[in-house]
Amino acid sequence: MTSEPVRTELHAGWTLRAAGGPAPEPIAAAVVPAAVPGCVHTDLLAAGLIPDPFLDDHEALLAWIGRVDWTYATTFDWRPDGHERHDLVFDGLDTVARVTLNGRVVLESANQHRSFRVDVRDVLVDGANTLEVAFRAPVPYANEQSLALGARPRPYPLPYEAIRKSACNFGWDWGIATFTSGIWRPARLESWSVARIAEVRLTATPQAGGGRLDAEVVIERADASGPALVLSVEIDGRRAEAEVPEGADRARVGVDVPGAELWWPVGHGAQPRYDARFAVRADAGEADAATRRVGFRTVRWDTEPDAEGTPFTLVVNDRPIFVKGVNWIPDDALPVRVDRARYERRLRQAVAANLNLVRVWGGGIYESEDFYDLCDELGLLTWQDFLFACAAYPEEEPLRGEIEAEAREQVVRLSSHPSLVLLTGNNENLWGYEDWGWKVALDGRTWGAYYYHDLLPRLVAELAPAVPYAPGSPFSPGGEHPNDERHGSMHLWEQWNRRDWTTYGEHRPRFVAEFGWQGPPAWSTLVRAVSDNPLTPESPGMIVHQKAMEGNAKLTNGLLPHFRVPGDMETWHWAMQLNQANAVRFALEHFRSWAPHTMGAVVWQLNDCWPVTSWAAIDGDERLKPLWHAIRAAFAPRVVTVQPRGDGLAAVLCNDTDEPWTGDLALRRVRFDGAVLAEHAVPFEIAARGRLTVPIDAELARAGDVAAELLSATAGDERGLWFFAEPRDSALEPAELELETTAVPDGTEVRVTARTLVRDLALLVDTVDPAASTEDGLVTLLPGESATFHVRHAAPIDAAALAGARVVRTANELVAR
């Protein structure tokens, strides 16, 4: 008998075929090579049998894929190696599958969100082994389950609540419906003896002079009455052991780690992590080992009622953290294409935008280990929804048991990550039950309350007691209406749906977990995905790539209070992008100015899963939209913003750094031509992580000519501006600019000098080179001021093109006539 486990990947030699349903010829008769991990779409794309579903109206052309049964097959060689157990392991099957090994059914699954392990020692044969995974079509299966369980309220036609599969896989108001099937995460054969480590439930706690690691380790035995074992842990040169009695399936082990340093969110300190190695040993030697990378930190959410309601304040290492957050959706509608490098690109873009938290939304997926490991490394806090979104979910079997198994696995998997600061029961379901007519529509049927108020908090308390839990988002801790701005977290969607974005200023929430505004993707992304000729806001391809209900009407209605609707397509595109950025920046600066009453804002949304008009700051081709620049500016470590206070105005200075901020606040009322009409200097001193509100004298806060004046508040390098009139009602003249370009090793520096007031200057560099990018944007310049844009590009770019009207965009051309 050997003791060292053997793990053999089962990723080679797979084929795919349609096994039933409306597959068109020649696909119905084809057997194509298949990638594992992968999915049907990527295999058919690789074989050249389908067009790209992200282009034009191909989504509709490929809807049949979700109504077809698909079978994967491979053959692998195996030889007896002396091990007692041989487990077939699938880290993810999407979704309803029957697994057959050598003609025998060994597994039936119906949950995309969990892994599966089955003992196949009695099924393997010496030599060639045949493995098949037969997937049932997800669309008819979900419909069947909906009939069996009873229809439940939801915002979209197909019953995604009746199947444990990513909800947005059936389409969303920003997402394509793909209806994927496939072996979407790794598969392998694990051969082992005596015992294996099945779970590691750990807590890494700071203590005086260092930290302490405590863990409960669950052990699976090859023989339930197996021998006594020794469990050990090693971390940072320290070691501890615990006895595992004969037949026992778990043990606790703990170790002090002197000198362990605190793990902090980005912007608050460093992110030291420590490798902890757990091993289980029998007389014959080490049977199995597992490694976890841990960080020592404390986390809680302050929800102690105060005079104004109930706060929702994140506290890490006893420091209140103003949450600068963003919502995350799957980064590709075919998630198998998202690898570690892509996660890293996206998450580094988040950090560069001054974000410190990513909320993984409940209609998507539990992301891979790479995602959470990168968040740990970068200091990006993670808020993970359990996967329930915008629907009433049945509490009956078979869903009930599947949800418990899924939650148990994911709580244990995720809880070791220092970045994880919140597990949330669902997205908007508590709100939906109260306000969306569900009570009548349900007519007494279950809707998920058992999951959110009983099962999930019980599992978190059992498996990860140090991880905070909230029943939903939005949620009021004191039992008030779930979307009451005085209590807990709230979602703000009336602005996008019905009201002007300036009405964000009417709200003083304790915490905003969702709000946002739409805008189109980058120009080069748009024209790659939509080939309409002519391309217009309402042309057929544009409508396919606009999933929001009355989305284009809302874009227009939201623009008109601020700008007129342009007549040409490229200017329309810029106007909608700019309005999106202005809406969110306005809201973020308002929310931030009310700290510590308001202690966080989580923008909807960071990323896109395909090329689409949406709320994202980074589009489906990974390009930054102007919204990204707005978030970066509003969430900068130090900010000056001018805000209404009572009947007047005030300058609010936010210092989210570890150093005091002192100096003079220069207040000036200025004409658009640069002439100073009134000015005043106010000395200030702000503590580290502090804020200061400075009332502005009426002489400065009241304009003589609202159409042609602005107020400037400057502290060091930071400046806030207040315009007394909307752009469309202002005397903003055409922008007069001078541009100088200088070649630099990774691209070009563009120095722009304003001869007139220039509002919201941006360089849309992808219009001349789709691979070019800049992290500089949305700069407002007074006459005589300059700004430098660093444009990155690998291929040569004609410097004159960077000065062209398609690249250099401002708010001025949306006003000047």
Automatic annotation (TrEMBL):
Q: Any idea of its EC number?
A: 3.2.1.25
Q: Which residues form the Beta-mannosidase-like galactose-binding domain?
A: 14-185
Q: Which reaction does it catalyse?
A: Hydrolysis of terminal, non-reducing beta-D-mannose residues in beta-D-mannosides
Q: Using the UniProt record, name the top-level EC class of this enzyme in a single word.
A: hydrolase
> What Pfam families does the entry give?
Glyco_hydro_2_N2
Q: Which UniProt keywords apply?
A: Glycosidase, Hydrolase
**Annotated PANTHER family:** BETA-MANNOSIDASE (PTHR43730)
Name of the protein: beta-mannosidase
